[in-house]
Amino acid sequence: MPAPPADVADRLERLAAHAPAGGIDPEAVWTHGRRRQRVRLGAALASVVAVGLLGATATPSALRLVAPPVATTRDADPLVLPDRVREPGRWEPPFQRAPGPLTAIALSSEGYGWSRNPVWWGVSGVTGESRFLRLSDASSEIEHRPVLSADGTRLAYWLTGDTPETLPDPDDLRDDDMDPVVGVAVLDLRSGETRRWETGTPRGLSTHGIAWAGSVLWWSAGDWDDGSVVGSGSSTMVTRTWDTLTDRRQRAVRATTEVDFYAAGPAPDGFVDLSGRSVRTVTGIQPGPRARLDRHLREQDWSRPAVSPDGARIAGIEEPDPSVVLDGPQAVLVGDLQRVDRPAGPTVLRAIGGVEAEAVLGWRSEREVVVLTSVPGRRSLSVVDVETGDQEHLTDLSGAVNLPHFAADALAGDVVPAPDAPFAPDPRLVGFGLLVAAFAAWRVAVRVRGRREHA
Amino acid sequence: MSTPEGFAEFVHARQGALLRTAYLLTGHAQDAEDLVQTTLVKVVPQWRRIRDNPEAYVRRTMVNANVSRWRRRRWREESTDVLPEPLADAPDHAELLAVRSALAALAPRQRAVLVLRYYEGLSEAEIAATLGIAPGTVKSQARDGLARLRQALPAHDGAEEGAGSLSR
Predict the structure, then answer these.
(1) DSSP category for residue A229
(2) Could you tell me if A153 and A101 are in contact, meaning their C-beta atoms sit under 8 angstroms apart?
(3) In this complex, is the C-beta atom of B44 within 8 Å of any C-beta atom belonging to chain A?
(4) What is the interface size between A and B, counted as CB pairs within 8 Å?
(5) Which of A1, A16, A20 sits opposite B24 (nearest CB)?
């Protein structure tokens, strides 16, 4: 390019002479520049934080949207048992409205999502995967564990709600997130339909137990008395039955009010009612005749005596001293219930070889009982042959701090490989990662721009 | 915070020259003042880094700010009532108005090329570095810009004939 022609430079020079005169105040410019710098810095940091927050809050919803629904099954399909029962991570997506039959249910050891409150989670009876359950009106206290029907298609839980009066709380024990129990509900896991039975309790219900006997739900609870306070009170228990096929709801007749189903273990088409050394099975709305055991069996929420599918045997954990609550391993005992009606005496319970366990959970077949065993760092379900004493590993409980409750039929189901946990990163980490990435990108952009402008 | 050493001196010493360049870039006195103000405000955060040789950075910032300002204005609805800013009485009044109009008709980056080349006297390489474009682009933009000025402006009496001359 040649040197600037004189007339171009001259015309530009003459035009530039009409430019405004100076008068710019350096102090004002500097102050303005510093203020602008602070504003831009604040805006940039706010944007970085906003990106992080957006990532943190949107991640669970996004994962929920992309999470594939758990398959349901036909009624006739047997329940499966995963080879590893896993508590879902708190950010994993929940089941859909109708999760299908469940193999097990348990209370989470920590909160779900942003909530600190524990929630119930279940194991799909079709795929074996673990997910949280959406039971917004269910009590989430550990002693209010929902109960699965034997085939895993119905879930009964303690229903919470508002009451006309509120129990006084002098010791500030009340969990503000928890409403009192006002009844029970039954969730059809195949259809997602929920039916509720509220008693109209004035101050909430003191609960005693809940158990399935075929299609009949037994439950026992009583209104808190007028003088009760949170954490301490009295109530008069009322036992009720609810035939979920006919929807017939009734208070139990006098002869059945003594049913104790706090430690109701599984029995064919019903549950075991154990009280001390007295035992009977409850089928439908009718308790069977009582029998007597020659020894005490463990009678706790986590270990209940169980009757074999053919009704011939009862198995449980030996309880040497019923006045003391033990949770360590004790001998697994089994007795022949067909000998109960012998006038000669009580059912004789015998040890199965030297097998010890912490709990009996149910039966896998007519001669195999499922027990809970533990070694440090590992809890497992094992199958014990009550005739030979042979013991075989069934499934592991991984990360399940609270022992799940298994549907009776699930313990007889096929063992399948546990599905991998879905991708569900902690959104706080996602947000933090995005925050760091946005900050880094911003710094790189500033540096590149600075270099380019400075070149 | 008080003004750091060198900034006030730079502003006092260079504001006249900056305003003249800005005036050629914008074609409007008020816009020129705004552009210089904006440029100096943008320079403040970088002052400590550039204080030893601020000229090139300030020039580049001003050209880029003018391009940004032009882009923003394109998206705004402009009033058609705005009258052209009059020039002070001058014997070459008509000619300078024509120069200003011709410059205003150019794209801002092309206008910047002409101003930096023929008013500031920068080399093609310096212009390329200032605008962040290739030297070849500088050359073609200058050639094209001159051609468009030729079409818009009357011939200058006694001007030299040449590739960059406005004379016909």
Answers:
(1) B
(2) yes
(3) yes
(4) 155
(5) A16
Question: Could you tell me where the DSSP H helices lie in A178-268?
Answer: none
Is pLDDT of A130 > 50?
Answer: yes
Contact A58, B59 (CB under 8 A): no
* Diameter over CA atoms, chain B: 56
Contact B4/A6, CB-based, under 8 Å? no
> What is the ipTM, given to two decimal places?
0.83
Contacts of residue B27, defined as CB under 8 A and 6 or more positions apart, other chains included, come to B100, B101, B103, B104
B153 against A126, higher pLDDT: A126
Q: How far is A40 from chain B (nearest CA, A)?
A: 11
What is the pTM assigned to this prediction?
0.69
Q: How does pLDDT run across A327-337, given as a tens digit for each residue?
A: 789 999 999 98
Per DSSP, the residues of A276-323 read TTEEEEEETTEE---EEBSS-B--BTTB--EE-TTS-EEEEEB-S-TT
Beta bridge partners of A378: A375
CA distance to A125, A191, A216, A268, A420, per residue, from A105 (Å):
11, 18, 19, 20, 18
| Phi, psi values for residue A428, rounded to 5° | -65, -40
Give the angle subtended at the CA of A158 by the CAs of A154 and A161, to the nearest 5°: 125
* Residue of B23, B41, B114 with shortest CB distance to A16: B23
Sequence-distant (6+) residues with CB within 8 A of A378 are A396
Half-sphere exposure of A42 (CA within 13 A, CB side): 6
> Burial code of B69-81, b = ≥16 C-beta within 10 A, e = fewer?
beeeeeeeeeeee
Q: Where do the domains of chain A lie?
A: 43-67+425-455, 68-421
Please tell me which of the candidates B22, B32, B162 has its beta carbon nearest to residue A5: B162
Cβ proximity of A105 and A405 under 8 Å: yes
B139 reaches A (C-beta below 8 A)? yes
CB contacts of B2 in chain A (<8 Å) are: 27
Q: Which CATH superfamily, name and number, covers A68-421?
A: TolB, C-terminal domain (2.120.10.30)
Interface of B with A in 48-107 (CB under 8 A): 49-50, 57, 60-61, 64, 87-88, 90, 92, 95-96, 99-100, 103
Structure tokens at A181: 């129990």
> By the CB < 8 Å criterion, does B31 face chain A?
no
Pick A344 or B25 by higher pLDDT. B25
> Which residues from A are below 8 Å from B119, CB to CB?
9, 12-13, 16
The band of A97, judged by pLDDT with boundaries at 50, 70 and 90, is: confident
Residues in B touching A43 (Cβ below 8 Å):
none
User: In 3D, which of A300, A313, A238, A290 has the Cα closest to residue A264?
Assistant: A300
Per residue in A69-90, pLDDT tens? 665 555 557 899 999 999 998 8
